[in-house]
Amino acid sequence: MISRHRQQSSYQEVVPYWFASGQSTRSVRFSLIHALVLIFLQSLAYAGPIDCRKAKTVAENAICRSEHDYLVEEDKRLDRAFVSLLKALPEDQKAIALTGQKKWLRLRDKCQDDLSCLRDRYSERQQAIVARRKELSAYKPDDADMEALSQLRTTIQQYMIEDKEFPLEKALQKYSIAKEILSMGNHCFAPGDRLKRPKRVAANEWAAFSTLSAYSESMRSSCPAFSWLDVDGDGQRDLLVAIYASNSQIEAVLKRTGKTFGDIGHVFEELWYMHDADEIFAWDCKGCDEDAVWVRINGRVYRAFRNGGFGINEVFLLRPLKGNIEAPRIVVKYGYSVKVVYDKSGMFPQNDPRRWQEELLFPYTVQNRRSLQAATTKILELLKGQSKSPFRKKSSALCPIPKGTPKGDWSTYTQYAEESYPAEVVDFPIWVERICYIARLISMPLYTREDGIFAHLLVRKADANLSLSDSDWDTDTFRVIGRRYVVGIDSGLAVSPRY
């Protein structure tokens, strides 16, 4: 019998009770499990994906009439995810999950023919199902993983003795296995393409690679880059897949089993929904301070994902072909010695000083320059070793909001401008002669030995509402230059950034 609290109809309330903790039974062959799941669904009268020839409700008909069958495909994708979840659930939880799915269907149908509402319901449900499926199959780091983390930390500490700026980079380079990776470049599998087996690719590897032509339709527009590397130590090179799309680097690993790959599921069909496949992880890489390196530590291969920011570098050791939710993480903390300088390359000061003064509203004087220097030094000190800015909450005002200001205009005082570029930004206040200014410190990719810190600083009056877009980069007025130095290291388990 379903308890009373399980009968609530709100989507947010339905999600928690679909599932309880349990372990996936993976010892039975996939085909048998799939057949049993189908029998189970039929026994509980689960309808499965929408059959547009038999659409009955207003919502079903709206889905079937959606442009380019978009919602029809969403419905099929959700059904695949739900079936996959049921395979992973213990037997005593399958009926509860099915009840939750039926309640969600009723919630979806309340959207009627509102396509926006329908899209939201499908997106929410898909994310919740996938998140639960990953929890069920999540990999638990073992003693060998923690030993690898400890070894990486020790290596960083050894390099710190002689180099306070780049001990992390040197340690990752030491364990890098980049030379073992065989790259085949990008392939689209477009009609008429005549692929030739590279000399260093074995016949059975090429036979497995050729089977991917079945997914040519989903790969044609993205043309992934393919490489070979044995990631699980079974003596067979697996296939690394990388795609750059929508400002993100998306990666997948396909396990090779002879002349084919293991159950790759819907990796390519769902490639644009990177959260849908356990093998895939992604990160923003346009104007970011992130990268990843293939390393081998104590005999195990990891994708060492580095998430950088002001005052900190986090490195997660991700096991390929695993559901990395919690992963070993090492945190390297930095302090800075910086100087704020006037950037003469800015368009406004060079071409029209008056416009610069009007737009940026920060008179450039010796006293103000000192204030900029002091405020920037202070914010970098606050950011030392933190993964989030202390001023990140947009609901908190950086400068006092004048009485009578409409609530819709409060953002003028809580942030420098809307963020339209995926770079790390830190907004903070600067006080000069009792006047509050809002500054934005913008980090650009990577810290290099040649350039050190590469960051820009924008400043405006609190009541001057600016809209920052990609075309506004030439309005930068100050540069932050200087060097960093390691001030500490932490390590342990943490939630992976890919989750």
Say how many strands there are.
15
Low-confidence stretches: 1-31, 41-45, 346-360, 469-476
* Helix share, percent: 25-40%
Largest sheet: 8 strands, antiparallel
Strand order of the largest sheet: 8-9-10-11-15-14-13-12
Kindly report the average pLDDT value: 78
Query: SS-based structural class?
Result: alpha+beta
Proportion of beta-strand residues: 15-25%
Number of helical segments with 4 or more residues = 14
Dominant shape: globular
Query: Radius of gyration, Cα only, in angstroms?
Result: 27 Å
Cα distance spanning the termini: 34 Å
Order of helices and strands: HHHHHHHHEHHEEEEEEEEEEHHHHEEEE
Question: Tags for this entry?
Answer:
eight-stranded antiparallel β-sheet, five-stranded antiparallel β-sheet, 14 helices, 15 strands, 23% strand, 499 residues, globular, disordered N terminus, alpha+beta
